[in-house]
């Protein structure tokens, strides 16, 4: 009889950033530092380029209706909708609610997300409770973020907390060992 040593190495996180604006750049940079695979999705050829996102794992130039045929979404995928185009974000969310994505974040105020839910309901699209639990808007932890870099830190921190099944609170408040 021998013994076997094994170590489970989970697959890298995949971060899909829908929107290739300037505020997506620090998100890609920071996700790269974390070792996450990042895919930037946008319909604008002048924005979705490797020159603008050299550290992205991939760039996907597509319409929102074609996201699912272009992007593999699984249980290790987080998506952030940040196109600043309501209709593009709505069309992307319409696709994403039919996946097993564990995290969908929307940039912008809570009212925008509620309007998106109402518009999907009017189209006859039902969002079950399990998927509703996976949708975060406004995206990010409340750390007082204002700049694009601070917002990126806030967003990535929330995604990490969600995937680690943590609250994202201060370690000072923790009652057990870390």
Q: Could you please describe the fold and organization of this structure?
A:
The chain has 178 residues and is an alpha/beta fold. It has helices spanning 25-33, 67-70, 86-96, 110-122, 129-133, 148-163; strands spanning 14-18, 37-42, 58-61, 77-81, 103-106, 135-136. It has a six-stranded parallel β-sheet with strand order 3-2-1-4-5-6, sandwiched between helices. The termini are far apart.
Largest sheet properties: 6 strands, parallel
Helix segment tally? 6
Mean pLDDT across all amino acids = 93
Give me the Rg, rounded.
17 Å
Compose a concise summary of this entry.
The protein has helices at residues 25-33, 67-70, 86-96, 110-122, 129-133, 148-163, and strands at 14-18, 37-42, 58-61, 77-81, 103-106, 135-136.
Secondary-structure blueprint:
Elements: E1 14-18, H1 25-33, E2 37-42, E3 58-61, H2 67-70, E4 77-81, H3 86-96, E5 103-106, H4 110-122, H5 129-133, E6 135-136, H6 148-163
Parallel strand pairs: 1-2, 1-4, 2-3, 4-5, 5-6
Helix pairs in contact: 1-6, 3-4
